[in-house]
Design goal:
Blueprint lengths: L6 H26 L5 H22 L7 H4 L17 H5 L5 H29 L8 H19 L4 H37 L1
Helix pairs in contact: 1-2, 6-7
Length: about 200
């Protein structure tokens, strides 16, 4: 399989695809113009193309890389992404500093580990019985479901981290409301006991 990854194989593959397509097109042109040898040319070109498509189906697709996720703006032709080169170009445009990137990635890793431990705390909070608070708990149940789905997909993309932070903000607001309601219920119950 290592031969399939070489530049030489890719060159041959493109050469055969181009020759086969050119033969089919020339055969079609000869057939339209009723020139001699048109049927033979068209048949040879179609057989070559059929063999190529069969071969391409057997070797499978190459892995796709989504570099624009790592370098935002990469898919924009006019973006100003600094080249990763040494020399005259690197002197004109600053490249990436390895230490800065390593520190940023380390910081992101620490933040994700902190979020992971926070998620464990939230999971135990989800198991607490708040049946006395009625509608607040029902609305929070829907929120917990969405938050659990977000936690399952958190490691897949950085966009999920942003959604997670928004949900944590919403959770903090809902927990504050829930604490107020629970405090009111306790106050009401203590007032009933004193009368």
């Amino acid at each position: 399989m290592s031969f399939l990854k070489t530049k030489w194989f890719k060159y041959l593959k493109n050469l055969f695809i181009g020759v086969g397509a050119a033969t089919v097109l020339m055969g079609a042109l000869f057939k339209l113009e009723s020139l001699p040898g048109a049927s033979m040319m068209l048949t040879i070109g179609l057989v070559i193309e059929a063999c190529i498509f069969l071969f391409l189906g057997l070797i499978g697709p190459e892995k796709d890389y989504y570099w624009e996720k790592l370098y935002p703006g990469l898919d924009d032709y006019h973006s100003r992404i600094a080249p990763l080169a040494v020399g005259e170009i690197a002197d004109q445009a600053p490249g990436l500093n390895g230490e800065v990137v390593e520190q940023q990635l380390g910081g992101m890793l620490n933040e994700l580990q902190s979020m992971s431990s926070s998620l464990g705390s939230l999971k135990s909070l989800q198991e607490v019985d708040f049946s006395g608070t009625g509608e607040q708990v029902k609305s929070m149940s829907n929120f917990y479901t969405r938050m659990n789905e977000a936690m399952a997909n958190l490691s897949d993309t950085l966009e999920d981290t942003t959604v997670y932070k928004e949900q944590l903000t919403s959770l903090n607001q809902n927990l504050g409301s829930l604490n107020n309601v629970y405090g009111n219920v306790l106050s009401a119950m203590s007032n009933i006991g004193t009368k």
